[in-house]
Amino acid sequence: PSPADRAQTLTAWLADLTRRAPLVLFTDDAHLLDLNSIGLLNELLRAGDRFRVLFVTAFRHAEVEATSPLWHTLEEGISHRLALAPLNRAQTADLLNLLLHPTIPSADFVTLCFHNSGGNVFDLLEFLRYLIAKGELTRSGNRWLEPPNPDALSIPPRQSARLLDRLARLAPEARTLAEAATVLGGALELDGWQAVAAVEEDTLFRAVDTLIEQQVVVKVNGGYQFAHDKISDALYESLPPAQKRKLHRRAAQFLEARLEGDDSPLLPLVARHYVAAGVSDKAIAFSLRAARAAEANGAEWDAFHHYRDAARLLEAAPPSPDRDARLLEIYPKAAQFSSAAWIDAATCLRWLQKAIDHHASLGNTDAVFNLSLSYIVTSAITGQYRAARRKIEDLIRDARIEPNTLPWAILYGAGVCLVDWYQGHQQACFDHAVAALNLFEAQLDTLPAEAWPAYSWAIFWRDKARAYLGLPIEMANIEYNRRLMEEGKSDPTIYWHTLTAVGARAAFTGRWDDLLAWKEEAARRSRAMGKIYWFECWISHSYLYGALHHGEFAQVESHLRRVQASPDPYQVRLAYLFRGRYHLFRSEYEAAEENLRRFMELEADDPDNSYPEGLLSLAQTHLARGEMSLAEERTAEGETLAAGGPYANPLYRLQFGHLRARLAMAHDEFDRAETSLQHSLQLARTLDNPLQTAFTHRLWGELLARQHRPDDARRHFNRARDLFLSLGNKYQAAKVTALLEKLGPPAGEPA
Q: Which residue of 163, 250, 616, 625 has the fewest C-beta atoms within 10 A of its own C-beta?
């Protein structure tokens, strides 16, 4: 059952259970939860109005990927995060007073402990254990004796070295058991632990007692685990390679004997242990089994990891018909797991090219076409636009794809438009989508089943391009794509993407509530499909744009943390762009320029669709800092890009018009500024963009105020404020109100 199905069952049970009294459910170490468990927890949180339960979940935020679904309910406003900061020096002193009672530690000793723990409670406790083990912190009766000269102590600067020093003092059988535990990882059960350590039962129990006494492991839920991951990590890294392989082999053999079919959660563990053990034949066999099982369960990234392990070992093996057959099973998987390209783009593209070469040698043109299309998509989503363009040229040449044919429509509707959009060639994206749609719609009655998804993609790209050009989109197209999905002619993936086009239009026109509604619908469908990373990837630009202009800075910070950690290079670029814009909005110009310059560096070789926005933001930063020549240079470059060529875009042209007006105002060139604003206002109305219309009126009001025409300025300010309020944008409305107050009351009215 899916997390949603399980949550429905648990929701009914919790509703009945808490009818009489409320309940608190505490989950510890949530950073260790698998995706299914996080999904279940999130679904229960979303159903929280149906029962009386307080969920308290503890996790180490540094060990949770920023793209993890564990953060989703925080962004949705369903849950709240209480961040526990490290202890400060005074708090460290208070804790030491409790730990060393009745001894009161000296100021020098507190400083020593704080410096070596950073205020982390585990690190502090471990530092005290280290001092005790070294004989530097001793007891006399009920009192603790500090080291007489803390500054003279020779203390390893890295905590891992201090941990290993303490572990080295363990009895040999306890050390052996600890080494086996670090290879097994996670929850430890005695039978597996004993088998991997290869010790007798009496030795096992004696060693376990020692590890507990020395606070290396703790007893939990009928089993055992390391007292902290840092202990396990330090110990594992210290093991010689041969020792690691031996222990992994024992772990694999023990778990293999307990396997019960390919649905067993032990299967991926067996595969990973055999890979780490270097037992090639077993590693290949179990990696393939684990990959197929993960694939069947929709766990694409897990499947890719297992297939990659198998492929690496197979490619190192001597050629044979069986080896080649298994590799040819693996290579096309890169087409199915396109998001795996974010993990390892080079491997995915290499696999696809090998599969293409194989089918080309057999004259299988259909397979070559489909695999080449996947190659184009994989190249584009990993920022390798030149590679994508080269493959488009190769495919057209080698497959002899002629214009005005169905293969041309499929290639352009599903592949070329994607590259166009990523590179920011929005007009080309729109034109190519329209041309493909004309070909599809001329033969809808006879369109083969395999062409319908490409037709749906072309519908999507037409509207996505319109949104990024600042133009209205046709809601009828969105509904049509939904119907195609429900009829089974299109994939749910495509309709999900279609929602991002609507979200982009809402963001660029300032309709924040609409953006949130579409964002939630897209997120819900993303969760239902198990594509948790899609939400981050395809909604980020429009969501961050909308949040910034609406003054939702807390949302911007929260979302940026996840985007910055994304495996998608497009997202990493966006993170620098919007972090720069975030600092710009907050008048933090040095930080803004630093992030924007980093963004422009990443754009230097293969610019994407945010490149003009980077120029715009950098020009705004230079203008705010009074660097007029630099602002002029960036503005001129951006105006040229937006006016013609592949980056031609009326929405960017409008925004550069605003910037040109500000530059003219800075030089007291008021007529020139007014001309720019007239063009911008005309564009904003043509694009039916109330947000940009409001910005234009506000800027026009500023121009008129500079010209000492308060009544005319007030009229534009009032128009801007009314437009912002109609969009529910109190943040921008308040900024205009401040300008009105600065202007003073109309003539004849009391101040």
A: 625
CB-CB contact of 418 with 377 (8 Å): yes
- The pTM of the full predicted model, rounded to 2 decimals, is 0.83
CB count within 10 Å of CB 638 equals 26
Tell me which DSSP letter residue 188 carries: B
Number of Cβ within 10 Å of residue 253's Cβ equals: 17
Q: Please tell me the CATH code under which domain 551-648 is placed.
A: 1.25.40
SS3 sequence of 511-522: CHHHHHHHHHHH
Place of tokens 């715009």: 616
Phi, psi for residue 81 in degrees, rounded to 5 = -105, 130
CA 167-173-177 angle, to 5 degrees, is 70
Report the run of H or E that residue 684 belongs to, with start and end.
helix 670-686
CA angle 650, 546, 580 (to 5 degrees): 85
In sequence order, which ranges of 47-171 are alpha helices (DSSP H)? 72-75, 89-99, 107-117, 121-133, 159-167
- What the block records as the tokens of 429 is 């994206």
Do the strands 217-220 and 223-226 form a parallel or antiparallel pair, or are they unpaired? antiparallel
Half-sphere exposure of 325 (CA within 13 A, CB side): 3
Alpha-carbon torsion, ordered 583, 586, 589, 591, to 10 deg: -30
Question: Per the structure block, which two tokens stand in for 749?
Answer: 């009215």
Contact status, residue 28 vs residue 526, Cβ threshold 8 Å = no
Residue with tokens 């985007």: 563
| Cβ-based neighbours of 614, under 8 Å, separated by 6 or more | 577, 596, 599, 600, 603
Burial class (CB in 10 A: 0-12, 13-18, 19+), 38: buried
Taking the C-alpha atoms of residue 471 and residue 461, their distance in angstroms, rounded to an integer, is 13
Angle among Cα 54, 60, 64 to the nearest 5 degrees reads 100
Cβ(421)–Cβ(388) below 8 Å: no
Q: How far apart are CA 731 and CA 717, in angstroms?
A: 14
Q: What are the tens digits of pLDDT across the range 481-536?
A: 999 999 999 988 899 889 889 999 999 999 999 998 988 888 778 767 766 555 55
- If you search the block for the tokens 């024992």, which residue do you land on? 250
Find residue 140's DSSP bridge partners. 143
The one-letter amino acid code at 28 reads D
**Given phi > 0 = left and psi -120 to 50 = alpha, else beta, which region is 470?**
left
Q: Could you give the CA distance from residue 742 to residue 178 in angstroms, rounded to a whole number?
A: 70
Cα–Cα distance list, 465 to 154, 498, 684 (Å) = 64, 11, 17
Tell me which CATH code domain 651-751 carries: 1.25.40.10
Each residue of 392-433: pLDDT tens digit? 999 999 999 999 999 999 999 999 999 999 999 999 999 999
Buried b (16+ CB within 10 A) or exposed e, 147-169: beebeeeebeeebeebbbebbee
The identity of residue 514, as a single letter, is: D
